[in-house]
Structure formats: C-alpha cells, structure tokens
Amino acid sequence: MVDLESWKSQLRKGASELVILSLIGEQAASGTQLLDALAAAPEIGLSDGAMYPLLNRLEREGRIAGRWETPKSGGRGLKKYRLTADGQAALKKMQASWRLFRDDLDAALGERR
Amino acid sequence: MSDADRIETYLKSLARALRGLAESDRDDILNEIRAHLEHRAGEKRLDEAIKALGAPESCARGFLDELKLQTAFTDAGPAKTFGALLALASRRLTAAAGLFVSGIFFLFAFGFAATGVIEMVTPDKAGFFVDQVEGVYVFGAVDAPGPNTRELLGRWMIPVAAALAVLSFVAGQSLGRFFVGLMVKRAGPRAV
To answer: Considering only CB atoms, which chain A residues are within 8 Å of B33?
Structure first.
C-alpha cells in the first residue's frame, strides 16, 4: 500500500520554497497574506505551521528581507517580505530548473499512459 | 477566555519552547506569530489559526528544524567542523603517504632502468658486486669496483635490471591506485 501522504509531503518540500519566492517576487507580502493567497491551492499543502519557519529560514539565508509595516488605517503592523537580489537570482534558477523537471516528468508519464 | 488571553497563552508556551534561541531571534518569531494571530482574531478566525499553527511545541520545532537545516550548511559547531577538518586532513595525509610510497617505487624503477643502460654502455661499471672481504653487496653502478670485489651477473645484468625496473614500476603504479582508492572511500564527509 502506497503511503500517499508521506509521498506528497516529500513532493511539497522542495516546491514550497519555490512557491513562496515566486509569490513574494510578484508582490511584497506578509506570512498571513501568503497563507491567504495559498488558501485556494490546498495541494501545495503549506500549512500555517510550516509557512513561518520557512519564511524565517529564507530571511536568514538572505533570499528575502522582512520589514514591519503599519497599515494606513492603523492597527497592528505586518511583517512584509520582499525578494533580495539573491532571492531574485535563486527564483530565476529554480523556475528554469522546475520547468525542465516538469517537462521531463510530463514526457515520462505520457509515455506510460 | 478572551481572544487576547488565548493569544498570550499561546505565545507564552511558544516562547518557552523557543528558549534555546537567541533573544532577538525569539522575539522576532514571537512578534510575527502575534501579528498573525491578532490579524486572524480580527477576522474571527482565531480558532482556525491556532489549529493550523499546531501546538506551540510543534510550531517551535518547525522553526528549530529549519534553523538546523540552515546552520548545518553555514556555521556548524566545533565538533562538526573538527570532524570535517579531520576527514579533510586524513585525505591529505593519505595523499601524501601515497605520493611518498609510490614515488619511492618509481625512483627504484628509474634506478634499475638506468643501471641496465649503464651495463650496456660500460659493462665493467654496472652489475651485482660483492665485496667478500667487507661483506658488501651492491646492485647498480659503481665508479671503480674495489680489488676484492666480484661481479656475479655479467651480461645477465641487463635483463635482470629491466625486470626489476618493470616490477618496481608496476608496484609503484598499483600502490598509487591503492591510495587513490583509499581517498575515494574517504571522500564521503565534505568540508563544511
């Protein structure tokens, strides 16, 4: 019997970093905003409990930079993340690599269909 | 319990679970989680948010695991760094020993080959000399054999020197390969 959940979690591990960099690359966002954006994509499977540690690591590694911003309407601020130059370079490489991987995988699956 | 109280309770447990971190790192995490929970409370989704973050201990483990992943590649502790250095040094040592041992055999090969050539050019200066009075054995070339010295091999010196040269060369090569094999086996642990 295939342990589908554990296999899916392996698949998601590498993908979640690419998803986060890609979303932040489009627009600066807080963790809460990223989670909202991904609410419509449950298959990505990035939970609240995984999002913040990942953001924390990406910031430590210098691929994203966070800054506290207070909304104009007042209220508590949000830590918004932007891509650094390193993050932009990493995103480009990861996107290219992902596209090649996806094409090869599609081809391999297509042959066996 | 009010939403604010529930958030404080959650953050207190999270802070306890993160006590191994530097204070500034911990505060940074706590501030962000606080902002997230307060934002969700404003949307009347605090229950859902606390459930999605998981128990404070498991939420903390997520941060600690990601941190471990990062430090393993950047500033590893002294034990790890020392281990990696040791592995590196032992490879260098293996390389040095290999170079030395196989180098000696290559020198022997060259020496025997040269002796064979000298035997061809000046037969009386190369050979297997035995000084029976002093009990000295010399295989190779000598400038002037002493009065008590006898040469044992004669023209056989050429094939014998050639065979010894080939043997030494093969031995040097095999030992070199053996040491390279040792190094490949030790190539596992990489420098950090």
So the answer is: 52
The answer to whether B35 and A77 have CB atoms below 8 angstroms apart is: yes
Helix (H) or strand (E) holding A78: strand A78-83
CA angle B179, B185, B186 (to 5 degrees): 90
The more confident residue out of B85 and B169 is B169
| pTM of the complete model | 0.59
Task: Name the burial class of residue B122, with classes exposed (0-12), middle (13-18) and buried (19+) by CB atoms within 10 angstroms of its CB.
Answer: exposed
| Closest residue on chain B to A61 (Cα) | B70
Q: Does A9 touch chain B (CB under 8 A)?
A: no
Contact A49 B29 (CB under 8 A): no
Which residues, at least 6 apart from A53, have a Cβ–Cβ distance to it below 8 Å?
B62, B63, B65, B66
Instruction: Judge: B33–A52 Cβ closer than 8 Å, yes or no.
Output: yes
A73-106 confidence digits (pLDDT tens): 777 789 999 999 999 999 999 999 999 999 999 9
ipTM of the complex model: 0.88
Q: Looking at chain B from residue 30 to 49, which residues have their Cβ under 8 Å from any Cβ of chain A?
A: 31-33, 35-36, 38-40, 42, 49
For the CA atoms of chain A, what is the radius of gyration? 16
pLDDT tens for B88-98 read 566 667 778 88
What is the pLDDT, as a whole number, of residue B94? Answer: 76
Residues in Cβ contact with B64 at an 8 Å cutoff, skipping those fewer than 6 apart: B18, B20, B21
- The strand order across the sheet containing A29-30 reads A29-30, A78-83, A64-69
Which residues are within 8 A (CB) of B4 and not within 5 positions of it... i.e. 6 or more apart?
B41
- Helix (H) or strand (E) holding B30, with range, is helix B23-42
With CA atoms as reference, the chain A residue closest to B68 would be: A57
